[in-house]
Amino acid sequence: MAKLIIEEINRLGHVIGRHRYDQMPVAVGRGYQNDLILNDPFVSPAHIIISEVNEGWRVEDQGSENGVKYKLHSTGSRPDQLLSGDDIILGRTRLRLYSPAHPVVDAHLLPTKASLPQVIASPVIAATVIVLVLAILIVNELLTASKQTGIDKLLASTLPTFLFALAWAGIWTFVGRVITHRASFLPHFIAALILFLISMLTAIMSEYITYNLHDEWMATVVEFVIVGAALAGLFYINLINSTNVSRRSIIITSYSVAWSMLLVGLFMQYVNQPEFSPSPDYPTNLKAPFAKLAPSKTPEEFLKESEKLFIVE
């Protein structure tokens, strides 16, 4: 039966290697004569020897240049008698000592359904989102162009949106590679496109709300809520796909960051509004007759409601 398990741990706290030893003592260093050979230039050729003592281990420094540092986690452990779960640091290498009888956490249950990043990265959904974004961009370009536009210019007009989504996905893929040592590009890319798609559809919906209510305030509130939720969803997918943070922390962080960004944007817009404008803006969106859902007012009703604007006291 093994007498010692040594884990190598990187700077992010991830285990990068496990070594099992049935015989004691165990020599550790950079030289090839050691039982555990470390590839660390700050570790001496013969750095330490780990020997068994009572219910734990003792670490003996072999005259190394950088010595040994201790991170004691077990109750009752001390530098001259390490217990299972304690760490030692040699140079820039962290080693954790375990007894074979050390308890481990229960196994995680396999998910019964695909996670959200896996769902949006499925071929059908990914292709559908890309086609919808292309269609909306091209239609918007056709409706706003002052002259006939060729297919090459229509496709070129979609490039900024896709380049932004590619850059956003690339950043989060790099973050995931650094933190979790895995890279998953497609979920980040599709999530960014979904945010754009929701923002465009919400902007169109807000125009119809303004058209029917003759008031931009309600449309602004609706757009704020929907875009805020979509932005929080984007951050949720980015964080859950690129970090090891708990799901609860991800949800709190996503909504906090999303709403904070939108509130700052609204505040800046409010602050930069002039106190007086000789040419105030009014909602003047023209829509097809079928888009009007609010009841119409007769000229007499409009004049009666407007009388208070002309009363002179």
Give a description of the structure.
With 313 residues, this protein is of the alpha+beta class. 46% of the residues lie in helices and 14% in strands. It contains 8 helices and 9 strands. The strands form 2 sheets. Strands 2-1-9-8-7 form a 5-stranded antiparallel beta sheet, with no helix packed on it. It has a 4-stranded mixed beta sheet with strand order 4-3-5-6, with no helix packed on it. A hairpin with a 2-residue loop joins β8 and β9 (93-98). α2 (123-144) packs across α5, α4 packs across α5 and α4 (159-179) packs parallel to α6 (216-242). The longest helix has 29 residues, at 185-213. It starts with a strand and ends in an 8-residue tail after the last helix. The model has no long low-confidence stretch (mean pLDDT 84).
- Beta-strand level of the residues, as a percent range? 5-15%
Write down the Rg: 32 Å
Q: In one word, what is the shape?
A: elongated
Low-confidence stretches: none
- The amount of helix comes to 40-55%
The number of helical runs is 8
Tally of DSSP β-strands: 9
Structure class: alpha+beta
H and E string = EEEEEEEEEHHHHHHHH
